[in-house]
Design a protein that fits this description.
The structure is a single chain. This protein has 575 residues and is of the alpha/beta class. The protein has three domains: 103 residues, Immunoglobulin-like (Sandwich), CATH 2.60.40.10; 324 residues, Glycosidases (TIM Barrel, Alpha-Beta Barrel), CATH 3.20.20.80; 90 residues, Immunoglobulin-like (Sandwich), CATH 2.60.40.1180. Strands 13-16-17-22-23-24-25-26 form an eight-stranded parallel beta barrel. Strand 8 and strand 9 form a beta hairpin. The radius of gyration is 26 Å and the shape is globular.
Length: 575
Amino acid sequence: MITRFPIVDIAPATYFGGEFVPAKAIPGESLPVSATIFREGHDTFSANALLFDPAGKLVQRTSMREVWPNSQNYEAWITPTSLGLWHFAIEVQDEKGIKDQSEKFPILAETPRALIGAWYEFFPRSEGAVKNKDGSITSGTFKTAQASLKRVSDMGFDVLYLPPIHPIGIQFRKGKNNSTTAEPGDPGVPWGIGGKDGGHDAVNPELGTLQDFNEFVAAAKKLKIDVALDLALQCSPDHPWVKTNEDFFTKRADGTIAYAENPPKKYQDIYPINFDNNYKVLFAEILRVVKYWIAQDIRIFRVDNPHTKPVNFWQHLISTINAEYPDIVFLAEAFTTPTMMHALGKAGFQQSYTYFTWRVTKQELADYGRELSKETSPFFRPNFWVNTPDILPFHLQSGNPAMFALRAVLASTMSPSWGMYAGYELYEHIPFKDGGEEYRDSEKYEIKVRDWQGARKAGLTLEPFIAQLNSIRKEHTALQRLRNLEFHKTDNENVIAYSKREGKDLILVVVNLDPARPQETMVHWDMWFLGFEADTFEVKDLLDGKKHTWHPHTFVRLNPGRPDGKVAHIVQVVI
């Protein structure tokens, strides 16, 4: 029904699955409320954004301003202050006291980890692994991997993601470099879950016992690191479910269970799950598994290939878990179509992997940054990964340390959550084949023995720079927000500039996107977005500590090739 004052184009309002799904937020995070508001004639009116707490009490009334003169588009920022389901509405009133109030729209304030995190991924079997004189390798365990926690902490990461820690199947086990024939001693792919020692609720005995795992998680907690587990809903042919619940899988006409395929790739060591045969029993079993790991003090699940499972299943599972455990976070590993990725966010996933991994030019990065911070932020939270065990992007395959550094700057400052897979800091960059984005001697298929200490002694590690980036992130709330990302004009296509502001915390970032050559440009700072007017302003570079006087039109030169090669400025404006 049209009200006395038409209020249209209300945002954030996301209609999905027959209802308005809550806009995503965390306590203390401001989010914009906007609408197009108009009336007949020329009489003036005022508009307010109303915020209601989880108990339904009106706690904020914020005056809305017209974004541009005569645009009829009004905006205000509101801030939920605690966990729970909040609502907002828009109120309009004219000078005569005639008033309308819009319907209420939901906002879900979730745990801060749903938005903010520096993620690191390693395989426990590689941490502390030893190469023996005869060429064989002794696997690392949860106990040996505990020693690596300090390295992760020293780099400033606060989330440690582990690939599946469960027993690995024997039938059709893959060998090195995805060979279909496993040699004696090949450890198998962790995603080929299930064997004689159990399935999704068991620990691979080669890594240790459940007690060892619990001690590992506790040790990480002491270092303020949250352990994230992989939730991979697939099975090896040896998984217990294959015998106890054949209806969890799809059968071919000949009665055999269908293995996974992603043409031209075939995964004979993995059986996909069928969600149509016996959904009620399957859901109960998966729910039991998730709750089992929650009981082991796990609060984050990185979900493998969620786009290959029904969206309504994820909505069912995540809503059921979050109703009982509101601090649980689900990250979607979904490199697929935007439609599916967005649907998973609307269905309840707190975060998602993104296309950042393949966005390299200034235009690509700016367009994608605007999309994520402005268009999709009500329902889609990004996590920027610079690499994964599956993805060695083409731009890293040169091995140029400056490229590794500048990509880390972009990921850690554009997004409040970013991620890095072990080996990135050592500039690992050899592809399996030309034209492909897979690592040679991929850790998915074998145990890696890395010489972290030797790399440090030789100065062949990005660890100190990564630690500096994560320290800057933790000290500046502006970098822990998504919706405040604004891009600014540069005269050079090889240099990108953007800003983030939260209250008086104003951060400006300038990055040379060319790892091989020095680049210089004029940066034209949009002072309206920066929130102040001045002919000059003082900044402190958070990377080298130097102070500068900058202008609305600032000349910048970045030379990655110097001995102290500088790929970026990350500066704080002195307000």
